[in-house]
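As practice, study what follows.
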Amino acid sequence: MAATASAIALPALRTHAWAQGWPTKPIRLIVPYPVGGQTDLIARTFGDFLSRNIGQPVVVENKGGGGGILGVTEVKRAAPDGYTLLCTISSSLIQNRVTVKDLPYAPEQDFIYLTTISGLGGPLVAAEKTGATNLKEFVDYAKKLDKLNFGGYGVGSTPHLLIETLSRQYGLKVEMVHYRGEAPMWADVASQTLDAAAGSYAAALPVLQSGRGKLIGVTGDRLPPHPDVATLVEQGARGKYLGVRAFTAFAVPTGTPPEIVKKFSDLLYQAREDAKVKQVLATYFLQSPSTFDAAQTRFKNDTQVLLELLHELGVKPE
């Protein structure tokens, strides 16, 4: 693990005087995905909270591309001085280790994870043209096609693992169409270019509201606005992946002074009580940010499960 609570405490005396003056300038918050997706929404919501509580602007910079690689790599290469933060999704930290040749960063060594945030459930949305209203109807539709066009945002990403799991169970032929982030993917569901996609509720909401996409199932728990839409497991889907939930993580480069790490992690956890943050979490059905220790545990456990699953599915670098 990049750092533990005890490891963070060791060099505190050496950095105390220096860290007391922090921050003296704006902080960059790197998001490795485009504007409009759930990761961007979370970054801007928590970035605003940090700005209000540390006395300096937190400037969100979207560095999309390469399944998150460009933005994550930029944070790895940044000076570990407390002026660069990362907000990214779990696939860029876990799945990329299997799906990308010569990954330019080591997730377990290059970063200190401050908190994690995940949704209650992830939506599987079929385009209006499919006519599907549930998993069975979607499978019946897909079996009539030469190939099902399914949207994702990188090999091994949440949508990719989901449709791989379903295609193995139901014998579907799938053509994955990968995007730089969720926003352009959901735009293509709305335009009926894609047959279906999966991702976050926050980013899928405009498609659902327009009627151009239909929520046909959920990974995780049922979503409060759609209590009658059963989870995929309830509809008969099976597979290890269905028990794992993607998360968004905030992190800093390894080597960041311990007192700054603690300040960031404490503030991000405290944000759960902020009125503006609570409103966004409630609106998009996101769980509250975790403690520092819980973030370490989740990263370790999810890494083990997902890496095993990727190897079982035979996912290889592209």
The two ends are 27 Å apart (CA to CA). The chain has two domains: 5-118+247-312, 121-243.
